[in-house]
Description:
There is one protein chain. By secondary structure, the protein is mainly alpha-helical. The chain has one domain. Helix content is 70%, strand content 0%. The protein is built from four helices and no strands. The longest helix is centred in the middle third of the chain and has 27 residues, at 39-65. The chain is elongated, with a radius of gyration of 27 Å. 0% of the residues are buried.
Amino acid sequence: MINLGVETCLVYRIPAIFTSDEVCKMSVARLEELASESDEVRAKRQTLQDEIQRLTEGLRTCKRLRPLKAPPGEGVARPAAD
């Protein structure tokens, strides 16, 4: 809860802290630094995208191979008990 309060205060004040005039005064290098992602974040994003792709393909396979539902009133046949 405390974090949420602090984040709310910071986000609320961004227009006063980070004005367009200040952005215009910044060098291209500083703007790139502020807008860029770290190599670690980029690697994590790629790992997650790869995982999403594998999971999506697995889900597609499961949907294709799952048995069809039996019509209402018809159960699954079971072997006779000995």
